[in-house]
Amino acid sequence: MVVSVEEVSASIVREYLSRKGLKRTIACMDEEHPRTHSSINIRSQLRQILHIEDLYRKNKVQSSPLRTLLEIIIRHHIEGAKDDKMACNESEWLTSALIISRVSPAKTSLQMNDTNTERAASVLSCEHTELRSHVSDVSPTPSDADMKGGSWVDASVNEKGQSKAEHFVVGEPEKKPPEIIRSRPHRIRRGMLAGPIASTLQESNKQRLSRRVAAPQLLPRKEEDTTQSRDGLSVTRLHQKGSEKSSSDTTQRVQASEKVGDTTPGRHDRTIVRPKTQPHAQHLSVMVLDDVDDDLPELSNMSMKTGSAAARGHPMDQHTASELKAVLLGSCAKCFSVEWRNQAFTFSETHDLRYGIVQKKGGPCGVLASIQAFVLKKLLLESTDSANTRLQSLRPTNAARRKCLSLAVAEVLWRAGEEKEATVAINTGRNVFTPSGHYKCEGVLEKVTCFTVDSMTELQVLVEQHVDQFETGELGCLLLTVSAVLSRSIAKVREDMDVATTALIGAHGYCTQELVNLLLVGQAVSNVFDGNVELDPGKGNSTLLKGIKGPCNVGLLSLFEHYNIFKVGDYLKNPRFPVWVVCSESHFSVLFGLQGGLLTNQDEKQLAFDLYYYDGLANQQEEIRLTISVGKWTESREDADADLIPPLELCIRTRWKDALVAWNDTEPIL
Q1: Is 280 a catalytic residue?
Q2: Which among 138, 214, 219, 627 could bridge 662 via Cys, Cβ 3.0 to 4.6 Å?
Q3: What is the DSSP annotation of 160-218?
Q4: Which of 160, 150, 98 is nearest to 126 (CA)?
Q5: Residues 31, 33, 37, 40, Cα dihedral to 10°
Q6: Among residues 332, 365, 404, 651, which one is catalytic?
Q7: If phi over 0 gives left and psi between -120 and 50 gives alpha, with beta otherwise, what is residue 479?
Q8: Active site residue: 134, 239, 466, 587, which one?
Q9: What are the backbone dihedrals phi and psi of residue 622, each rounded to the nearest 5 degrees, phi first?
Q10: Contact (Cβ atoms closer than 8 angstroms) between residue 348 and residue 356
Q11: 96, 127 contact by CB (below 8 A)
Q12: Domain spans of the chain?
């Protein structure tokens, strides 16, 4: 099991709040950041994951043990920082002692034996960066004329040509300018160079050695590093131990010191530059570094993954989420059912049904059947292959059916956006807004980020790159529904309906006809007849019923037409491709054929053909092939077996009157 850093961090916070008795705070946290199956609720398990068993035992024997794991970890790091600082002070003292012994061993009061000398030399070689910061005023090869009174003298010439000397006082630490908090625009982020690149390979190797030595420290601290620029001048740059990374495309060079004077002959390569004490010089030499998270490559991949759509991506806000819940469920205070939250467009692994999308539980069958119809259209019928070749396509590979799924989703969203633009809802895995008021939080819309594109090509690429969220993600079905509504826009969806307050997800979590029509034809109209019908009750107040306005790529057959409840128009009965969504007994399934000329045959009375039926909710284990013989059904047989006629046959006869349906050794579905 892979341990999630986010879940472990949340568990540490929950353990702290629980030990402190902050129950209301825990309740708020559980609402804004709900627990998952990966959440850690056992304290001993949390200690094992964090590898703090020893710290826990040491804390337990203390006279006043700490109660929470967070406090134990914090105290450990605080005490570790103190120990590190003490070790650093000791190394500084030894370094100073070594310098004194080299300057004037006869005059100094510090007597160092051979052991201490070797120890100081070891510290000097290991702590290369600290030594350079303390002996930045010392020449590595001093002459006798430069040594006066136990101090190193840095002979140089000022701008006027006058000689001057700067002394390094033995035992007195060099004063550093106070840290100055700079505004954010002036800060340098980690990963960018704060000074020029080292001019020699030797200098570069020394810098890498310095970083390796300083890496184990618990608390990184800033230090000054003096390097030589290409023009012979030296600059002081600030970097953070163990965290500096070079970046070729984002390198920023910052000059942090000024030239003090001309260099003396023979010491050109060892020019030492001190930061001045003036305020403006302090601003240059002291800079604040911002820590940048180590997941920058992940953020960059996110930008590249979404392509040009990344610039137009925007996280979900509470107002849009409330409007979405109102149009989908009827109120922002309602929640999506478990059947909707756990449903994705997952394909069957049954050999003869690899093209089929499996439905787990009842509810979102209208969405699944609609996408299934477009998947079959992409998989079988958009090519010019023969019927035999298409039959072989009913056993697609994983890559082929995934490709068809992404193309089907893109087609549905593009038509919902009136073929001008489309919006794709992506689950980010984290809350993008904090709900308040009457809005019911459930961890669905709160984690959605929307990307809008204005070309079909970009839409196909975007959906294909995120097809996993639709195919295997827990919210795949909901993400598709939300994407379709946003592509159409919430305002236009309400305008499409006969009654603007109609919810797209009706009673018991079933899809309404408005939602199915939105996916099939791109408009959330309430009816399935052709065009609009205006009803005049006779009192001057007419009612407009909205229907299908043009040809459709896939069709619809409904059992309600058999019972004369409403009529399905020719646009849905005769789609461009022989694929129909079947509405029977409050359930949606799919019926399709392999013959491209099935709908163009003028002599339908003599027509005989095969249709295939698929129901994702029926736990279907075998292929259902129906042979349709138009005009072979007799009235006498209908009267005799009326109670045993499968509803699917009745739906088929709404399209082909008097059709005889043969189930070909398959048990009829009653």
Answers
A1: no
A2: 627
A3: TS-EEEEE--TTPPPP-PPP-PPPGGG-EETTS-SSPPPSSHHHHHHHHHHHHHHTT-S
A4: 98
A5: -110
A6: 365
A7: alpha
A8: 587
A9: -145, 160
A10: yes
A11: no
A12: 146-170+178-290, 302-662
Q: What are 202's two structure tokens?
A: 């030797």
Integer Cα distance of 36 and 46 in angstroms: 15
CA atoms within 13 A on the CB side of 421: 10
On whether the CB atoms of residues 181 and 288 are closer than 8 A, the answer is: yes
Contact 288, 179 (CB under 8 A): yes
Tell me the three state secondary structure of residue 319. helix
How do residues 97-147 score in pLDDT, each as one tens digit? 555 555 444 444 444 444 444 554 454 444 444 444 443 444 444 444 444
Asked if residues 3 and 49 have their Cβ atoms less than 8 Å apart, the reply is yes
Of residues 45 and 423, more confidence is placed in 423
Residue (of 64, 68, 140, 69) closest to 99 by Cα position: 140
Contacts of 422 (CB under 8 A, 6+ apart): 410, 413, 414, 416, 452, 453, 459, 483, 487
Candidates 203, 187, 184; CA nearest to 238 is 187
**Which residues are paired to 593 by β-bridges?**
none
List Cβ<8 Å contacts ≥24 apart for 272-277.
272/136, 272/137, 272/154, 272/226, 272/234, 273/226, 273/233, 273/234, 273/235, 273/236, 274/136, 274/137, 274/166, 275/177, 275/236, 277/177
Cβ neighbours of residue 635 closer than 8 Å, sequence gap 6 or more: none
Cα 365 to Cα 418: distance, rounded to the nearest angstrom: 24
CB atoms within 10 A of CB 637: 12
Run of H or E residues at 663: none
* Average pLDDT, integer, range 470-475: 92
Q: Residue 339 pLDDT more than 50?
A: yes
Return the amino acid letter for 303: S
> What's the sign of the alpha-carbon dihedral 360, 362, 367, 369?
positive
In this structure, the chain runs to a length of 670
Q: What is the dihedral of CA 244, 245, 249, 255, to 10 degrees?
A: 20
3-state secondary structure of 424: strand
The dihedral through the CA atoms of 221, 226, 230, 231 has a sign that is positive
Q: Which amino acid is at 248?
A: S
Residue type, 397: T
Distance between CA atoms of 310 and 81, rounded to whole angstroms?
Answer: 42
Tokens 């509803």 belong to which residue? Answer: 647
92 vs 363, higher pLDDT: 363
Query: How confident is the model over 536-558, as pLDDT tens digits?
Result: 766 667 788 999 999 999 999 99
**Which of 629, 577, 627, 626 is closest to 605 using CA atoms?**
629
Calculate the alpha carbon distances from 256 to 27, 175, 232, 259, 284 in Å. Answer: 50, 17, 15, 10, 5
Place of tokens 């134990």: 72
Q: What does the DSSP 8-state code read for residue 225?
A: E
On the 0-12 / 13-18 / 19+ scale of CB atoms within 10 A, 111 is: exposed
Determine whether 365 is an active site residue.
Answer: yes
What 3-state DSSP class applies to 426?
strand
